[in-house]
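Quick log. Single chain, no ligands specified.
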Amino acid sequence: MSRDIRTGRPFRLLRMMYEQGKSVTIYTVQVKQSELAKKLQISRQALNVHLRKLRDWGCIRTGRGFIDVTEEGLGVLGMSVNPALVLVRISPLKREEAYEEISDFPIQRIFRVTGDVDAVLLVEQEKLNETLRKLALLEGIQETRSYVTIQTLK
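-> predicted structure:
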């Protein structure tokens, strides 16, 4: 007998956490610590010392088989946690090719949308100029509009 996940206390708990939570930017790396130590050419013990420091500074969170780079860690790296949005209008005959090429750009996410534009790109502010330059060279791009976010409200 299977039970609908959308009922009961676990669902209410999930809903409450969602409603009380705040949106954050996290980059997750799914890697075993032994593999990471090997890539860095250090011992697993040495890796744990470095990971502990990064955890204490709030730069990462770790778990079994994954490491999350937090917003604090992104800030240390000089990466903006408030992305830029680029709205793109594409010639109908070139859309599929453009989507494929844009997906290789240095962007966080690409959303195909309906309405006055065809795609919305989520871009790190530091990569905005590079992204706009690449879009300008792409055949079929009719218009771009970019917006730099200044604060995440929710």
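The mean pLDDT is 89.
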